[in-house]
Amino acid sequence: MPANQYGFQHGIDIMKKLTLAVAMLLTTLGLQASTEQEADAIAKRIAPVGQVYVAGAAAATEAVAAGPRSGEQVYQSACFACHGTGALDAPKPNSEAWKPRLAQGFDVLLKHSIEGFNNMPAMGTCTTCSEDEIAAAIRFMTDGV
Ligand code: HEC
Predict the structure, then answer these.
(1) Does residue 78 belong to any structural domain of this protein?
(2) Residue 121 C-alpha to ligand 1 middle, in angstroms?
């Protein structure tokens, strides 16, 4: 088989996986927002943005200085779509599935989260996250293991 044919097939496989991941993400977000509790949580998360908009420049400075998001916040907003549901076989928080992964050492987990690893997308889809925030989210998912 010529090399370019393989490359094409590989490209299609990746597209399929990505499409599936995005579809699952959207489905999960849809389900998530449909419960009242989640709607509350979402309202709380976007609240600071609304306040900044209303209160003007002084508040905007405060919001920027508010500091990093907690591991739980990052998990809820970015990682939950797969890790909360087990989509694409993502290990669920505080499950046994983390044991062999933790055995690799935290640095490997962090590296895989930042760069991506098989179906695990780079930065866990949190494009605005710092590496510290990603590390906090990993700790949140693995603390009880
Ligand atoms: C699109 C789905 C998806 C999202 C969103 C996602 N993950 Fe993952 N993640 C996966 C899958 C699937 C695996 C298992 C990959 C494998 O082992 O082949 C995984 C594995 C991991 C691992 C283990 C890597 C290893 O070396 O064993 C860590 C750590 C991780 N994810 C962290 C995160 C964090 C932190 C976030 C949120 C910021 C996140 N993930 C968001 C799908 C996702």
Answers:
(1) yes
(2) 7
The closest-lying atom of ligand 1 relative to the alpha carbon of residue 119 is: 12
pLDDT tens-digit series, residues 96-141: 999 999 999 999 999 999 999 999 999 999 999 999 999 999 999 9
Note the pTM of the prediction, 2 decimals: 0.67
- Domain interval for residue 135: 71-142
Average confidence score pLDDT of the chain: 80
User: Does a structural domain hold residue 54?
Assistant: no
| DSSP notation for 24-67 | HHHHHHHHHHHSHHHHHHHHHHHHHHHHHHHH-HHHHHHHHTT-
Q: How far is the CA of 109 from the centre of ligand 1 (A)?
A: 9
**CB distance 118 to ligand 1 below 6 Å:** yes
